Amino acid sequence: xxxxxxxxxxxxxxxxxxxxxxxxxxxxxxxxxxxxxxxxxxxxxxxxxxxxxxxxxxxxxxxxxxxxxxxxxxxxxxxxxxxxxxxxxxxxxxxxxxxxxxxxxxxxxxxxxxxxxxxxxxxxxxxxxxxxxxxxxxxxxxxxxxxxxxxxxxxxxxxxxxxxxxxxxxxxxxxxxxxxxxxxxxxxxxxxxxxxxxxxxxxxxxxxxxxxxxxxxxxxxxxxxxxxxxxxxxxxxxxxxxxxxxxxxxxxxxxxxxxxxxxxxxxxxxxxxxxxxxxxxxxxxxxxxxxxxxxxxxxxxxxxxxxxxxxxxxxxxxxxxxxxxxxxxxxxxxxxxxxxxxxxxxxxxxxxxxxxxxxxxxxxxxxxxxxxxxxxxxxxxxxxxxxxxxxxxxxxxxxxxxxxxxxxxxxxxxxxxxxxxxxxxxxxxxxxxxxxxxxxxxxxxxxxxxxxxxxxxxxxxxxxxxxxxxxxxxxxxxxxxxxxxxxxxxxxxxxxxxxxxxxxxxxxxxxxxxxxxxxxxxxxxxxxxxxxxxxxxxxxxxxxxxxxxxxxxxxxxxxxxxxxxxxxxxxxxxxxxxxxxxxxxxxxxxxxxxxxxxxxxxxxxxxxxxxxxxxxxxxxxxxxxxxxxxxxxxxxxxxxxxxxxxxxxxxxxxxxxxxxxxxxxxxxxxxxxxxxxxxxxxxxxxxxxxxxxxxxxxxxxxxxxxxxxxxxxxxxxxx
Length: 719
Prior knowledge:
Its cofactor is [4Fe-4S] cluster; tungstopterin. By secondary structure, this protein is α+β, with helices and mostly antiparallel strands. The protein has 29 helices and 17 strands. 42% of the residues lie in helices and 13% in strands. Strand 2 and strand 3 form a beta hairpin. Helix 21 (529-549) packs across helix 24 and helix 21 (529-549) packs across helix 27.
């Protein structure tokens, strides 16, 4: 155990600020918090009417503040780079599932672009209840510091903090105990932290905590993508702690509580009646689809070479349910979420590393963790996957990026591009879970091959070419990154729409913008380029809306009304869309419809596109995908699905594969698939109101109400 009184006694007060917490009205306080840890400055800002109307909240506020704080050439580790955390007008309601989210925005060390990450835990709601619609952190501290916000007393401090741990599961426990008055009060504390690996690895993440009274442990949710934790630790922030006592269902002071209640009651009943026979989120969480992805050839295996594996049954959802995940406990990461997908394995004994022998609570596995740390690396041992899951979280490592990087390095090792000398003696073959764990431990220390892994696939490709004479073209085809961000854990080879869902994004290939694999590949609902372009307009804009509001996307499409299949557009879940319209109107007193919902997102989405262009990127050439995301790169890949690919050559191209070598067939297939992606790109850009080079036109910006001079100044240079 740790003596938090002794740890706290070593804190040195650097700055203190007292304030009168602004009252919430219709989902907003119209105040934001600015903290400069380099200058030890704390102040409040008023939110302008224009900002509120055009940027709404959440991700929108984060982008606006980051734009204003930075220059076009600001680097991720420059002092002026900010970390902005914001909920949204619906953040913090307790009547509707999934309303505890916040968005974190910064300039990414992975992509040199704006990265945004949606995260659960209690921090976002507590920040709003404490009087702030957003929080900006700017500057760099000289020594490790903690920012503490007491939302009840109206007091904020910056404190030098030399003795606390760095790793997420330890520091969150320490600070929860330190700032809580008693055991019951721990539920009123939320901690943002990173971990020791985030000191060194560009793939560092942020942990947002919530206290689980039933388990008696502090649990963690992650803002995982793009290296936000690396920015956090580079600024020498150990933690941001918030305390708010008195959470209840009407703190947003909504305009019409009845609209909110009606939507919530209907969805709660639907989840109760149908979740157990639909996605089983309350039983297993997002890991429910492991075996489904394998069945449809969509589970990434061996660095996205294959889509299934005979050993997948060893990590199927029932294995985690029966052997590891604690059942019978509400598992929402915010109050009132009956979908309860935040599963956990309790009293899990760690076998390696500095916490060997410790019994810990592992938050997971999520599908992405099982697929990325597991199948994509050829690892089908659920214990090793859970241990890697734990260490990624506590060290502050993005599990998606780490899994994809490991898979890339493992393929390079098996193909002889790198050897044991390069890996520091590690036998980095597919399936070696202990080697994967050793990479994590090295990463936490900033040592060995693990330190290189933490740089990401894009940097590894450069290293392997320079130091090991690798073929750059081949690495670019098999290295599953785009814009510098690793691809998340779905195999998109047979879904052109999902290739666009990854490639035609603002931040890089993350499925939170558009997950169209089933709609496109399995159900064939969007057969033409125009159909796909419409889907790649609507779904990214609709999903952006969750990030403006402070909502989780899972209640939208991981549970469905029993008659949803009878609606005109079942993929959109029209009943749920209407719920969201009612929630927004109920909280804010507005009278938007489903079309205005999309328009709100479109404004912010196009702003982010122009932000990227302002930074010298965000154009068509950055939207290209590695070919492995589109088709077979190697002879082994082609021949694993030879019957399928040969048939496609005949039916789609009129090409006779008889008597042709596999290399010849790969070449013909590649030309066709690359051309299909270019045609899709043309169609999507046109639908989004962009030029053929991916620049939003001034006419389109005017039509959506984003005719801002600073945006016109950027786009004028690229017309």
